[in-house]
């Protein structure tokens, strides 16, 4: 007798092996996807926490266009939950046509704690601002924390 078919026992064993292999591949695939998504969410949470932990509110901004030298008084409050470290702060003055008029630096002498308010007086030189013109003021503090506001030169 010449048999060419697979016996039921061998067929059952082959089906079980294929099922186990498919389940293993699906498990490996799902754990890979899950770990990648978990990593991305962790990065997003970390970024969001950092952004909400460092927040700056421009309380008051006075632009003084004076013949002897233009000055800007910036009163700002740390509204975040993290301390803003002392260091060099950059100040950018932008005119009404969105052109950068001047970029200067100033020193943030001490740390700015949570809810603490400080006032910086920054001398920016002469003939940078004209009276009655409105300027956009952007300050970038150590750690990349930014605050922006507009002021009308007096």
Characteristics of this structure?
4-stranded antiparallel beta sheet; 7 strands; 30% helix; alpha+beta
Give a quick summary of the entry.
By secondary structure, the chain is an alpha+beta fold. Helix content is 30%, strand content 39%.
Structure description:
- The chain has 154 residues and is α+β, with helices and mostly antiparallel strands.
- It is rod-shaped.
- It folds into two domains: 1-53; 55-152, Immunoglobulin-like (Sandwich).
- A hairpin with a 5-residue loop joins strand 1 and strand 2.
- It contains one helix and seven strands, in the order αβββββββ.
Give the topology, please.
Elements: H1 8-53, E1 56-64, E2 70-78, E3 87-94, E4 100-108, E5 117-125, E6 134-141, E7 145-152
Antiparallel strand pairs: 1-2, 2-5, 3-4, 3-6, 6-7
Quickly give the CATH architecture of the largest domain. Sandwich
Mean pLDDT, all residues: 85
* Structural class by sheet pairing and helices: alpha+beta
Radius of gyration: 31 Å
CATH topology of the largest domain: Immunoglobulin-like
Number of domains: 2
Shape: rod-shaped
Tell me the helix content. Answer: 25-40%
Relevant CATH superfamily of the largest domain: Immunoglobulins
What topology, given as strand order, has the largest sheet? 4-3-6-7
Number of strands: 7
Question: Beta-strand level of the residues, as a percent range?
Answer: 35-45%
Give the terminus-to-terminus CA distance: 110 Å
Largest sheet: 4 strands, antiparallel
Number of helices: 1
Low-confidence stretches: none
Secondary-structure element pattern, one letter each = HEEEEEEE
Oligomer state of the chains in this structure: single chain
Query: According to CATH, what is the class of the largest domain?
Result: Mainly Beta
